[in-house]
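Retry 2 of 3 after timeout on previous attempt. Resubmitting structure tokens to design endpoint.
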């Protein structure tokens, strides 16, 4: 990457599209509206063009603008280029009434009502012709590319690629997959790509280099806090939506192993939370009375009754067979601390190598007694006391989370006033949601169920587990559910109150942040 223009990021990070979309919405929740990010992005495009061609006065600039956020960036760039003296013509690919992004629409209205630029919409795509210009701007799709390029995009890009002048792509050349670098037939061929906040993996792929040209990475105002602290964007974009052709079981299956003679509530909370987090099927392997009690209180739970009053080695063959039928296993809530149960936990976990597992509560105490290396798709969920057991020492939650994640080679959340989530590679995220009133029995089991439900959704819908960010998303939802419970009921809440607010939190996030974020 060549870096010649001042004001652009010299050593940019590489982020996935999931990361970018998540952090943008987290940024909104931190008080920075998408409209401001769009303004900063458009200004950065104008800055890059001025850097490359010098004085903009009377320069002829042709802009191709789509109906989403990339089109909005292009409209803002057009405004700033015109303010600097350029002669700007915008080809709006879609009718005004089809513009999807609310911030794009705001910028379009402002330009339509001014005389700064000329705006043209061609009803017939065949009317797009090559141009003799100083600069041409591709602001059609950006990171929103999906498959084959259709009309009017195909004809507009044919004109763009056949024109003379500096060809500039905003964020990603239209037609180039920002994640994989796959190039659709007829994709934009840019001399310069001005991408926002970070590099996208696809821009660096060998197949894409001819289409990307030189890359400049613009700083547009994404706060560091929006990346490190969990937020609503993590929930919106880390946790996949149910597809239109969904079938029962296709959105995730969870097996919770928990419960014992004295502990009925914990496995109920965990199994129920998995369902309320969107998993299609939630199985509960517990002593018979516990399993049936849970199913009576929530008929959505599918009981898998075990003989006896607690988990023991005789259950291992049955559980290993059942584990083959699910996406994620949660183990620990309410198991109790009998030595045979602890030994059974270690044997089970060791026998499930490679399987996504959430290990909580009494199962953590079993881990603390042995030297065991886990794997990427295992999540440990200790509170501060359990973290001290695992690390064999007291300490700061972040220090403990980092140490435990490396020791066990697993993703760890240490539950604290600010939750700390760390992966074995040393990367950590944090969660600030929650309330002191949540320091009651069962709320940790609710979190375990949310984590297992969210993980199951990703796995069932053929995504990587992305455990660090999924756990951050889960902690955010759990904490918000607790806050909502306190708001509605006061500070003497129970785990059931938190459980019953999971769906309300998910609905609120969807309603508040989905509109206009595309």
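Retry 2 succeeded. Sequence:
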């Amino acid at each position: 990457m060549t870096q010649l223009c001042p004001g652009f990021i010299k050593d940019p990070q590489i982020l996935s599209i999931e990361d970018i979309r998540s952090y943008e919405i987290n940024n909104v929740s931190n008080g920075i509206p998408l409209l401001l990010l769009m303004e900063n992005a458009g200004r950065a495009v104008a800055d890059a063009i001025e850097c490359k061609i010098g004085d903009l006065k009377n320069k002829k600039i042709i802009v191709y603008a789509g109906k989403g956020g990339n089109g909005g960036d292009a409209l803002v760039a057009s405004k700033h280029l015109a303010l600097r003296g350029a002669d700007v013509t915008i080809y709006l690919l879609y009718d005004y009434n089809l513009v999807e992004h609310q911030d794009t629409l705001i910028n379009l209205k402002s330009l339509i009502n001014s005389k700064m630029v000329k705006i043209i919409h061609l009803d017939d795509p065949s009317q797009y012709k090559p141009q003799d210009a100083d600069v041409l701007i591709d602001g059609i799709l950006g990171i929103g590319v999906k498959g084959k390029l259709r009309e009017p995009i195909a004809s507009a890009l044919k004109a763009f690629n056949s024109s003379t002048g500096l060809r500039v792509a905003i964020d990603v050349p239209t037609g180039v997959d920002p994640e994989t670098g796959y190039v659709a037939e007829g994709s934009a061929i840019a001399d310069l790509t001005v991408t926002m906040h970070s590099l996208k993996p696809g821009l660096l792929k060998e197949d894409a280099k001819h289409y990307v040209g030189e890359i400049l990475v613009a700083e547009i105002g994404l706060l560091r806090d929006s990346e490190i602290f969990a937020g609503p964007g993590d929930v919106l974009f880390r946790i996949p939506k149910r597809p239109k052709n969904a079938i029962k079981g296709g959105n995730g299956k969870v097996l919770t192993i928990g419960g014992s003679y004295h502990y009925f509530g914990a496995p109920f909370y965990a199994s129920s939370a998995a369902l309320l987090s969107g998993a299609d099927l939630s199985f509960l392997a517990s002593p018979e009375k516990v399993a049936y009690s849970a199913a009576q209180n929530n008929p959505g739970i599918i009981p898998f009754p075990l003989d006896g009053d607690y988990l023991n080695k005789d259950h291992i063959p049955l559980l290993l067979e059942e584990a083959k039928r699910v996406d994620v296993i949660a183990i620990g809530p309410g198991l109790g601390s009998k030595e045979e149960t602890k030994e059974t936990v270690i044997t089970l976990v060791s026998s499930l190598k490679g399987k996504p597992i959430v290990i909580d509560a009494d199962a953590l105490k079993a881990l603390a007694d042995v030297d065991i290396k886990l794997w990427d798709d295992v999540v440990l969920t200790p509170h501060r006391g359990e973290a001290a057991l695992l690390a064999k020492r007291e300490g700061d939650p972040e220090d403990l989370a980092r140490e435990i994640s490396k020791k066990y080679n697993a993703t760890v959340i240490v539950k604290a006033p600010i939750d700390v989530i760390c992966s074995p590679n040393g990367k950590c995220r944090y969660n600030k949601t929650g309330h002191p009133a949540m320091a009651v029995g069962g709320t940790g089991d609710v979190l375990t169920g949310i984590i297992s439900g969210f993980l199951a959704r990703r796995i069932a819908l053929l995504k990587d587990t992305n455990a660090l960010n999924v756990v951050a998303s889960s902690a955010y939802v759990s904490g918000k559910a607790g806050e909502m419970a306190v708001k509605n009921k006061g500070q003497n809440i129970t785990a059931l109150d938190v459980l019953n607010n999971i769906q309300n939190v998910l609905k609120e996030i969807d309603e508040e942040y989905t509109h206009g974020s595309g």
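Attempt log closed. The mean pLDDT is 95.
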